[in-house]
Each structure stands twice: as structure tokens, then as C-alpha cells.
Amino acid sequence: MIYTFSAWFQLSEGSDTVSVIFKSKGSEIGGQVIAKHGCWTLLKGGIVANFSSPVEIFFKSKNSNVEIWADNVSLQPFTKKQWRSLQDASIERIRKRKLRLQITYVNGIAMKGATVIARPAKMSFPFGCGMNHYILTNKDYQNWFVSRFKFTAFTNEMKWYSTEKKQGQENYTISDAMMNFTKKNGISVRGHNILWDNPKQQPEWVKSLSPLELAEAATRRIVSVVSRYKGELIAWDVMNENLHFHFYEDKFGENASAIAYATAYELDPKPKMFLNEYNTIEHSRDEAASPVKYIKKLEEILSFPGVAGMSAAIGLQGHFGSGHPNLAYMRSGLDLLASTGLPIWLTEVSVGPSPSQAEYLEEILREGYSHPGVEGIIMFSGPAQAGFNDTTLADENFKNTPAGDVVDKLIQEWRTGSLVATADDRGFVDISLHHGDYDVTVKNPLTHFSRKLSLSVEKGFSMETIHVKMRV
Q1: In the annotation, is 277 catalytic?
Q2: Which pLDDT tens digit goes with each residue over 289-323?
Q3: Which residue in the list 157, 164, 348, 362 is annotated as catalytic?
Q4: Active-site residue 287, yes or no?
Q5: CATH class of 150-380
Q6: Which end of the chain is more exposed for a tag (fewer CB within 10 A), N or C?
Q7: Whole-prediction pTM
Q8: Would the pLDDT of 472 be above 90?
Q9: What is the mean pLDDT of the chain?
Q10: Could you tell me the pLDDT band of residue 418, with boundaries at 50, 70 and 90?
């Protein structure tokens, strides 16, 4: 069972993070919120229960001197079938639009029995996959990727330790070749990444630099990589894993990340600038990267003067383990992050190996796609021949794994597929299509004369009526 939790909280004084704790044999955080004195704040969260036993619910604050006041406490159970039904209803509402085509002859008489065929040409929702350097030399990998995806991020090839292995000797040969491949095949690229705050993920030579030398090297790195790919990327992960690590903050002070964002934005103002982090929605045990902490860090960056006007975005890596994903916690985290009004992407989705890997991957991808705040999904997965051994989508012979079957199924489902419908007595055809561009063919049932038109399905909640006049 999936349990959603909600409650309104207030503190007797000041402000602090309040957590809901579910305690049985162990303890699990079900959600967090920053509560304050003088106003009520909503906490949303939940757990997935694959056990049966009594559970105690605690409300926790690190400040033992305050009272925690709770109101309207709710715990609501859902079966997986019910949860899936909610996802499907949300997808129908936020990712699709109902259309009515009225097919008539030139004189206005309804064309009963006219056939309408809608084929997807380009979909609006970015659903993609990471790629690595094997794409340059492996024709099977190229065919596998191009036949499925129009969005990507390079898993390692743009990172600093890949482009400047020796100080002062930059080498963009591989990333340039990968960019040429993506441009040739109409694939949009997220830049991953400019800097990585993890001290272990710096180029080896960086670790021995003085603070002044490091500042000069980091600035050169930002200028070099952003200038090189200016105008070619849809996004940048500017400071990677900025909640878990603080390599640059330790060296340059608390504004180090904000300065990096300001510098990148000045060099290339068009791409969305992401704060990219893991464990924000994957599970509740990592308090360092909780949605509450994420928003706080984002607010610190956005309060810096140099980023005014920057198109900021929320990057959630989505590296889930092999256990059952806590979809209630994931949804509550997305809800809280979406309250910022900023676009959310799942940037590196993967699922640990287990007999249920394909099932869990589908649940996670559907949860992301069904959430109105999520505007794109990139998986860090792929074929075995390219070294993807965690979430493998195709084996050594490029035969689909069960996880690969899930991805292909969702691609077809979210592309709508070719839709065929027949006009009723009044010449009406009612259809529901995912947002995107379509090639539409309308056929006269008697003469088989056909008319072709392009159709762009945009966001909107009201039914759109399209009039199509056909000659005999």
C-alpha cells in the first residue's frame, strides 16, 4: 500500500524544519517542511508499506524548546492500481488535449465516415537518455539511440576532468564529436556539467592548487566550456551536487556557487541553469538534500545580484535504489519543489538492479510524467555495449531487456502513436492527443480523395475545434 500523509504545522516560536517520522521496527522520514510561528504550513509526504504492523507517527524538530502544533492530520492509503489510475488521470489532464475535427464538404454538408489518421511528428515533452563516447564508434548504438530519443546529456564527456586532464591542456575532441553527432540527428543536449562540488570529482591537478590558483582555474573552466558551446545547449548543470558537497564554498566562501551561476549566465543567457542534485526525491533518509534544503539553497543562489533574470531550473537526478520506490514521498517532494514556480527535470533517472527493476522504472517514469511541475526526463541508462550496467536497456546483442521494453512502451504511449478515427453522422471526430506536432491525413470515404494538414497540439484545458473542408 502507498500511504500519503499531510498535516498543517506551526511552531510556538521562531522557525525550524519539522519532519514526520513513521516508526515501526525502524524509522523512516515521511516528509519535511519549514514551520513557523504565526502561520500554518502544509507538510506533504508519505511511505510505501510492504509490511503489516502497528506504526507510530512522530513529529520532530531539532529545537527541543519549541512546541509543535499540528492540525488536519491525514493518512490516506492507496493500492497500486488506484495510484496508477491517479497517474493516468493526471497525464490525460496535463499532457494531452481533446480535439474535435469537423469534416465537411465544401458546401458545408457533414462528411460521414471520413477517416482521420494522425501521426506524431514531434512531441513537446522532452523524454531522453544519457549518452557516452561509445556512440562515436558503435553503429548499433547510434541506430538504437537515434530511433528512440531526441534529448540527451553526456554522462561524462563534458565534465572538467574529461576536457582538461592536464593543467592548461584542454581537449574537447570527444565532446565536440558528440555534439556534431547530436546536431546531425536533431538531438537537443543538456550541458552536464560546468563544475562539480564534490572534492573527489575534480581533475587531479586541481587538488594541489592554492586558493588563488584554483579561483583562476575555475574561472577559466567556466569561460572555456560555456563559451565553446554557447547557443548549442538547452540547459547547463552549473554546480553539480551543490547540497551534498561544498568544495568551492570551502575555498571561496558561501557565494561560490552563486558566482559560478552568474558567470555562466553572463556568458550564455539563453539555456536554463540547473541546480542538479541526488536523493531529493529518491528517498527520505538523506536529509542533506531534502526538498526543503534544496529550496533553501536555490533561494540563496537566486538572491545573488548577478543572477537577476537568469532562467533557473530544478534538476533532480533520480538515481533510485533496487528497493520499491516511495512514490508518495516522490510526489510530495515534486509538489513542494513545484511551488517555487520553476521548471523541474528528472535529469539522470536510473534504478538499481533487482528482479522488479523494470516495474520500478515504469512507476518512477510515470510518476514524473504525470506531475504537472515536471517538464522533462533524461535517463542515465542504455545498452550494455556502451557500458550501462546498472539500468541496462539492451543486452550485448541490442535485444531489449525488460527495462528496455518499458522504455519503448512508454515512448509509444507518450507519442500517442498513429491514431485512426472515423467521423460520425455530423462529421465530428473527437480525439485526445499528447502535446506536440502531428501530420494529419483526412480521407473521403467514397472517392478516397485525401487532404493532408499539419496540426500543433498545445497546452489547454478546453476542447479545440478544427474545421476541415473536403472537396469531392
Answers
A1: no
A2: 999 999 999 999 999 999 999 999 999 999 999 99
A3: 348
A4: no
A5: alpha beta
A6: C
A7: 0.94
A8: no
A9: 95
A10: confident
Q: Which residue has the higher pLDDT, 27 or 218?
A: 218
SS (H, E, C) the chain: CEEEEEEEEEECCCEEEEEEEEECCCEEEEEEEEEECCECEEEEEEEECCCCCCCEEEEEECCCCCCEEEEEEEEEEECHHHHHHHHHHHHHHHCEEEEEEEEEECCCCECCCCEEEEEEEEECCCEEECECHHHHCCHHHHHHHHCCCCEEEECCCCCHHHHCCECCECCCHHHHHHHHHHHHCCCEEEEEEEEECCHHHCCHHHHHCCHHHHHHHHHHHHHHHHHHCCCCCCEEEEEECCCCCCHHHHHHCCCHHHHHHHHHHHHCCCCEEEEEECCCCCCCCCHHHCHHHHHHHHHHHHCCHHHCCCCEEEEECCEECCCCCCHHHHHHHHHHHHCCCCCEEEEEEEECCCCCHHHHHHHHHHHHHCCCCEEEEEECCEEHHHCCCCCEEECCCCCECHHHHHHHHHHHHHCCCCEEEECCCCCEEEEEEECEEEEEEEECCCCCCEEEEEEEECCCCCCEEEEEEECC
Nearest one of 374, 380, 412 to 393, comparing CA atoms: 380
- Set of cell numbers at residue 442: 483526412
Single out the catalytic residue among 28, 164, 241, 277: 241
Name the CATH topology of 2-78.
Jelly Rolls (2.60.120)
Is the pLDDT assigned to residue 347 strictly greater than 90? yes
Please write the tens of the pLDDT for every residue from 437-453. Answer: 999 999 999 998 999 99
- Ranges of each domain in the chain: 2-78, 150-380
Confidence (pLDDT) at 277: 98
